[in-house]
Specification:
Length: about 400
């Protein structure tokens, strides 16, 4: 009898964690490493949020809470969805977890059976297919490559839906591409979904606040309110308030689904950390003006990185609308050899040779389901990014 479960056997380890780990080992050996492989804002959590956490500790708000979050946070979440997304919801329509990832995990675990299908646009955030598989269901990959700006086309969605489709997962702005759907693009997808009432929509809006060039963020339940009854709109403070370590994600969705998620969370992690919840109340209700400044910094970094990667390197990089990633193609450089003598057959060869020869850590596109590309996270200092771009340019120039 095997000790480890069959369910775990269906899951692959995280490639983003693996490359970051390799970069850390090289750094520990004294190598000069620039890690652009992780997806984490490099800003500190705002002071008012940190103060709220300290107050919560001092006031003894350190005990178990409701499984799905303190009333104050659920009120703050509902107010956020009404204010920013035009969703007609109250606190009773909202739910809080230990990070956005746990929202996704709870929702899929609470609903999927073997044989169910989940449409996952490609490239995808690495955890979606793995969580689907862990639940015993099947990811159905729908290609959304550079030819459509890394966005799912309505006809591709239509072709991916079968009678067994339980969910479509959307992620806007996207990790790994930074692509963000406009309201009219979402409307096109909504029209398809209106024809398939058995399909639920999980929209991962965790990068909502990071949309550039003055463009407006849109989410599908706002664009098509008739879909709200079968849409789980997920968000969190990890990226919006540089709170990745605090572990607070939240959502709004149909009440029967939320009740099932409460049942599951009640038998697994129970409530998210009480102190983090009080910090998140302040994050959502407090001033948001710092975001304009962060957006400006990220947008300037994006522009510098995109220009540098497209500067006669052989790489092809679209300008993404949001998040803090670019997802260039290295297709034209594959089949050639690096200056260090590595034959670059795949995108993984490309990123490993780049790491070995220049110390820049990126993640290969295959990890996100789309070979021939790589992901670069520009959530790093300007100095690091400038140096990384210089090294990538040098690496590409040496390829023959
Ligand atoms: N969704 C996407 C697309 C992400 O990139 C991430 C984090 O990298 C998450 C969800 C997870 O967020 P959290 O830290 O709130 O669990």
């Amino acid at each position: 009898m095997a000790f480890l479960s069959d369910a775990l056997g269906r899951v692959a380890p995280s490639a983003t964690v693996a490359i970051s780990q390799k970069a850390r080992v090289m750094a520990a050996e004294g190598k000069d490493i620039i890690a652009l492989s992780a997806g984490e804002p490099d800003f500190n959590t705002p002071e008012n949020v940190r103060d709220a956490a300290k107050r919560a500790m001092d006031e003894g708000k350190t005990r178990y809470t409701n499984v799905d979050g303190i009333a104050e946070l659920k009120e703050a979440v509902a107010a956020k969805f009404r204010r920013d997304n035009g969703l007609d919801v109250t606190a009773a329509d909202c739910f809080v977890s230990s990070g956005g990832k746990q929202i996704i995990f709870n929702a899929l675990m609470a609903t999927l059976n073997p044989g169910d299908e989940v449409v996952v646009p490609v490239p995808y955030w690495v955890s979606y297919p793995e969580i689907v598989r862990l639940c015993g269901a099947e990811p159905v990959f729908a290609v959304a490559d550079a030819s459509t700006g890394f966005k799912l086309a309505p006809e591709t969605l239509e072709a991916a839906i079968t009678p067994r489709t339980k969910w479509l997962i959307l992620n806007t702005p996207s990790n790994p591409t930074g692509a963000a759907y406009t309201a009219s693009e979402l409307k096109g997808l909504a029209e398809v979904l209106m024809r398939h009432p058995h399909v639920h929509i999980l929209t991962d809006d965790i990068y909502e606040v990071l949309v550039y060039d003055g463009k407006e963020f849109a989410t599908i339940a706002q664009v098509e309110p008739r879909l709200q009854a079968r849409t789980l709109t997920m968000n969190g403070v990890s990226k919006s308030h540089a709170m990745t370590g605090w572990r607070i994600g939240y959502c709004t969705g149909p009440r029967p689904l939320l009740a099932a998620m409460v049942k599951l969370q009640g038998q697994s992690t129970s409530n998210p950390t009480s102190i983090s919840q009080w910090a998140a109340v302040e994050a959502l209700n407090g001033p948001q003006d710092f975001l304009a400044e962060w957006r400006e910094v990220f947008q300037a970094r994006r522009d510098m990185v995109v220009a540098g990667l497209n500067a006669n390197t052989g790489l092809d990089c679209l300008t993404p609308e949001g998040a803090f990633y670019v997802f260039p193609s290295c297709q034209r450089l594959l089949g050639k050899t690096s200056a260090g003598g590595t034959k670059l057959v795949t995108d993984e060869d490309f990123v490993l040779a780049l790491l070995e020869e220049t110390g820049v850590a990126l993640v290969h596109g295959t990890a996100f389901g789309l070979p021939g590309h790589f992901r670069l996270s520009y959530a790093a200092s300007n100095a690091e990014l400038e140096e990384a771009v210089r090294r990538i340019q040098g690496f590409c120039a040496g390829i023959a």
